[in-house]
């Protein structure tokens, strides 16, 4: 039986407002939002409602992360749906959309449904998956159901397995479909040319600081420009993942509201938090694709989330073992762990007076729901699923190895102390994380979409 809750005395941040009030959760849904608790103890008792005194803590909708890699199936020694979704709910992420570069690659409807069955059994958070595109799986793409899945993922740069789409005719067929196309945007020819230059210069001992020169601004811009031109040609619903350069932003400017945009974009927390000076101290731990780049790029990306050029903030959470990451430049895989601290990292920008709470909620909760047309999530509204996060803005969180829930047990944030703490995470109205422990019996639901 599901528990019912009254979250009392909360500071609710939702839909660009901050108000004191209470949220009543019945059978997994938000039943009512009240300015104050006028429910009698008799009513609470008769309806099996547990009162939670929020004590003025911040209450926000659950974070929706539109880009994660949880490594299952086939790469579960790095992470799996259970471990990484547990880290997600401990970080206030209540819904995620997971990528297809697993082993085998998720490039058929059959393999896609197999992942849903795994998630149904194991996931602590709500879930959806992308179908991966290849040069020759257009028949699978044409059988895609957009009401039941996040979108089609297109790798314009190399990834795990045979997923890079570099055939122009295949790209045109993919971009002419009516589905949301999410892209990893880097030009592989430019990258390989740059890599050859640096390999000639350094052999296998290429310094990690060369990463943004190999996976360069030009590689990102040329690829994104190509994708945007294709999207305009075919009127495609295009979503550009992990924007990393200032130069790309001119390709994304629009005066349209998000609901009307055909071309949208995302920036990841690490591209807002780090610049290329981090390579000196963190080395391959901050090796991501696309690469973190200059301080000018970081600041331009930050300004772009403020003015609305970039729509969503997410993570690209992608665990690898520490042993893998500590290899030489070409051998060390790209990707890092972020879902347990992405919300706390963004809240630091509030503490530093750079972003409002309302803006953070918009970027991480509301806009992902709008962009992907997620049904009944992303807002604190009556009759929506009760995905919510209580945050204590006055209790710090120290990131250390012992507190990490990732299977790989490392984070680029180790040693960092954030000024806030996740006090409680609700997934479908149930307490999935109580501020100390992830509740092992809670499972998320498959996301659905208004497409």
Q: What is the topological layout?
A:
Layout: E1 4-14, E2 17-26, E3 29-34, H1 41-46, E4 49-53, E5 58-61, E6 63-68, H2 81-90, E7 93-98, H3 109-122, E8 126-132, H4 138-142, E9 151-155, H5 168-175, E10 180-184, H6 188-202, H7 211-214, H8 217-234, E11 237-240, E12 263-268, H9 269-273, H10 278-282, H11 295-307, E13 312-314, H12 322-325, H13 342-351, H14 357-372, E14 388-392, E15 397-398, E16 417-418, E17 421-427, E18 430-433
Parallel strand pairs: 1-4, 1-5, 6-7, 7-8, 8-9, 9-10, 10-11, 11-12, 12-13
Antiparallel strand pairs: 1-2, 2-3, 5-14, 14-17, 15-16, 17-18
Number of beta-strand segments:
18
Report the average pLDDT across residues: 97
Under the CATH scheme, which architecture of one domain would be assigned?
Answer: Alpha-Beta Barrel
Structural category: alpha/beta
Instruction: Tell me the name of the CATH class of one domain.
Output: Alpha Beta
Q: Count the DSSP helices.
A: 14
For the largest beta-sheet, the strand count, sense and barrel status come to:
8 strands, mixed
What portion of the residues fall into strands of 2 or more residues?
A: 15-25%
Radius of gyration: 21 Å
CATH T-level topology of one domain: TIM Barrel
N→C terminal distance:
32 Å
Give your account of this protein's structure.
- The protein is α/β, with parallel strands linked by helices and 451 residues long.
- The chain has a domain of 307 residues: Metal-dependent hydrolases (TIM Barrel, Alpha-Beta Barrel).
- 29% of the residues lie in helices and 22% in strands.
- It is built from 14 helices and 18 strands.
- The strands form 3 sheets. Strands 1, 2, 3, 4, 5, 14, 17 and 18 form an 8-stranded mixed β-sheet that branches. An 8-stranded parallel β-sheet has the order 6-7-8-9-10-11-12-13. Strands 15-16 form a two-stranded antiparallel sheet.
- Helix 5 links the parallel strand 9 and strand 10.
- The chain is globular and about 75 Å long.
């Amino acid at each position: 039986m599901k528990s019912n809750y009254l979250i009392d005395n909360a500071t609710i941040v939702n839909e660009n407002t901050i108000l004191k009030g209470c949220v009543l959760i019945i059978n997994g849904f938000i039943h009512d939002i009240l300015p104050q608790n006028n429910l009698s103890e008799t009513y609470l008792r008769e309806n099996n409602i547990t009162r939670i005194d929020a004590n003025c803590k911040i209450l926000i909708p659950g974070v929706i992360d539109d880009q994660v890699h949880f490594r299952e199936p086939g790469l579960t020694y790095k992470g799996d749906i259970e471990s990484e979704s547990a880290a997600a709910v401990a970080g206030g992420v209540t819904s995620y959309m997971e990528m297809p570069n697993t082993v085998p690659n998720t490039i058929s409807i059959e393999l896609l449904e197999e992942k849903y069955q795994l998630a149904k059994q194991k996931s602590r958070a709500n879930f959806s998956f992308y179908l991966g595109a290849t040069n020759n799986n257009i028949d699978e793409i044409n059988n895609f159901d957009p009401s039941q899945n996040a979108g089609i993922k297109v790798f314009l740069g190399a990834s795990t397995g045979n997923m890079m789409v570099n055939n122009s005719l295949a790209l045109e067929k993919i971009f002419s479909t009516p589905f949301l196309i999410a892209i990893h945007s880097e030009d592989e020819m430019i990258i390989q040319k740059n890599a050859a230059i640096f390999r000639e210069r350094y052999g296998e001992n290429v310094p990690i600081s060369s990463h943004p020169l190999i996976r360069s601004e030009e590689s990102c811009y040329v690829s994104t420009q190509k994708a945007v031109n294709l999207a305009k040609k075919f009127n495609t619903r295009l979503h550009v993942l992990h924007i990393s350069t200032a130069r790309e932003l001119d390709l994304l400017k629009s005066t349209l509201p998000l609901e009307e945009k055909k071309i949208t974009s995302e920036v990841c927390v690490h591209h807002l938090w780090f610049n290329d000076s981090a390579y000196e101290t963190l080395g391959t731990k901050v090796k991501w694709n696309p690469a973190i780049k200059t301080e000018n790029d970081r600041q331009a990306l930050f300004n772009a989330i403020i003015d609305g050029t970039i729509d969503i903030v997410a993570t690209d959470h992608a665990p690898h073992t520490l042993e893998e990451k500590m290899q030489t430049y070409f051998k060390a895989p790209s990707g890092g762990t972020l879902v347990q601290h992405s919300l706390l990292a963004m809240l630091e920008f509030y503490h530093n007076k750079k972003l409002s709470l309302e803006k953070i909620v918009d970027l991480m909760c509301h806009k992902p729901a709008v962009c992907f047309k997620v049904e009944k999530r992303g807002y604190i509204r009556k009759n929506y699923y009760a995905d919510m996060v209580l945050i204590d803005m006055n209790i710090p969180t120290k990131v250390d190895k012992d507190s990490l829930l990732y299977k790989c047990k490392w984070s680029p944030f180790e040693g960092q102390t954030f000024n806030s703490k996740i006090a409680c995470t609700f997934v479908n109205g149930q307490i999935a994380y109580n501020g100390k422990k992830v509740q092992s019996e809670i499972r998320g639901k498959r996301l659905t979409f208004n497409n």
